[in-house]
Amino acid sequence: MQLRQVLAASLLGGAVSCGSVVYGPDANRDSNNTVDVATTSIQVKTLTHLGDGRPQAGTLVSTDAAGNLIAEAETGTAGTATIAIVGGGNLHFIEPTTSGFHRITTIVGVQPGDALTFGMVQRPVQISGAAEAMAVTYPLLVNGTFYSFFTPCGVDASARPSTLNLNADCHKLSFPLLGTAAFRGLTKFAFQQQTFVANGTAAITTWTDMSPFSILYSNTPANIDSLVAIRASVLSSRLVGFQTNTFGDPTQRDFTVDVQFPPGVGTQSFVATELGRASMPGLQRVEVRTATLSSSLAVDLAAQPLPWIATAPVATATGATWTVQETGTPDMRRSVWSGNWMQGPELQTLNWIVYDDSASATLSLPVLPAKFATVDPRAQAVTNARAEVTYFDFSTLTGFATLRLSAESLGAGFDNNAALGNAAMVVRTSFAAAAPI
């Protein structure tokens, strides 16, 4: 019977030791069927993906880069654990299976001193608590086509009359209320601090013209067939008042695009630019959050270059491949592999999210120790699989050594995200996905 020994998860944080570690079936072994390897213990926190800050129980599995088992630990109801790793190894978080659905998140290349968080850190504004509502009244515009209302609790859009869907934890005693009204291709707005009254009414009495927000683009890459400019205000950690200009095919490297915006609303500006090429399934997105509220912004479309994904990822039972054009050095890559197989009469579905800093056009799913075969697609007869990939480059975060510490949160965008702080920042992404299975 093959002996398996696992390093205890209760080693002192940061302590380095050597131990007899049971490796996988393909490992080189000594005469005692074990290998001595230097390990160090790190602290790990596991949270839900909801941004509520609550712990997520599950199993941490530490392996070397080849997939040989180093240690495993349960995070339990507290969502924390200390676990032994080897430098450059992988750390997997396997969540409990629910109705045949499995989820694994893997951080590649963990190092001594890492303090890792799996899941989403608590969002500044919690969309929770008892459901409450207020009616909103407003004057109708001639040829008005669409009315939207933004609060920290989200966005509500409808024809008259409208109802603000509020939750106790996000509206507080008073809250900022932004309304927008689209008509004749233009937009007006109204903004006020609103006192909360359960089942009461918020009355908007006047609509005001929006102003042009000028985006000064430079160094536009070649062969861009479509450009979409998006602008929003940062208000109470939320992105509100989205306005869009679908510019189309740029004919010059340097040009200006105007997007409507509500002046005086919020504390910062958010601008996103989506770039597309007709011959490629992927798109690139440049998101900018300014230091202060502004009415214009210069965006260098050649800065923070990333590979363009030229063909959609093709998934297999062990990973995925795609092709890229041009070059770039991502700070982080997020690959999502999804697949199905049958376990008896029951359909099983796995989502496996892998974070690394590779610029390659290949994903090889990490090897799991044999004891986790029930969630390992390499050990299953996979019937369908798909993949998606996103390359990230951050202007103010320095490489994967920083990003892997809270990879899911840092890759979740600016809206209501404490992990990205409040400072000015540019985040560029390059993305493509296969069709859903």
Protein architecture, described:
With 437 residues, this protein is mostly beta strands. It has three domains: 1-120 and 309-391, no CATH class; 131-209; 211-300, Immunoglobulin-like (Sandwich). The chain has three helices and 30 strands. The longest helix has 4 residues, at 168-171. Residues 1-35 have low confidence and may be disordered.
How would you summarize what this structure contains?
With 437 residues, the chain is mostly beta strands. The chain is 3% helix and 51% strand.
List descriptors.
51% strand, 3 domains, 437 residues, 12-stranded mixed sheet, 5-stranded antiparallel sheet, mainly beta, Immunoglobulin-like
Mean pLDDT: 89
How many helices does DSSP assign?
3
Number of domains: 3
Strands in their spatial order, largest beta sheet: 4-3-6-7-27-26-29-30-22-21-18-19
> What portion of the residues fall into strands of 2 or more residues?
over 45%
Radius of gyration: 25 Å
Uncertain segments: 1-35
Measure the end-to-end span: 40 Å
Major sheet details: 12 strands, mixed
Shape field? globular
Total strands: 30
Question: Class by helix and strand content?
Answer: mainly beta
Describe the protein's topology.
Blueprint: E1 16-21, E2 35-46, E3 59-63, E4 69-74, E5 80-85, E6 89-94, E7 101-110, E8 115-118, E9 131-137, E10 144-151, E11 154-158, E12 162-167, H1 168-171, E13 174-183, E14 186-195, E15 201-203, E16 208-209, E17 211-218, E18 226-235, E19 238-248, E20 255-261, E21 268-276, E22 283-289, E23 296-300, E24 308-316, E25 319-325, E26 332-343, E27 346-356, E28 362-364, E29 384-394, H2 400-403, H3 407-410, E30 425-433
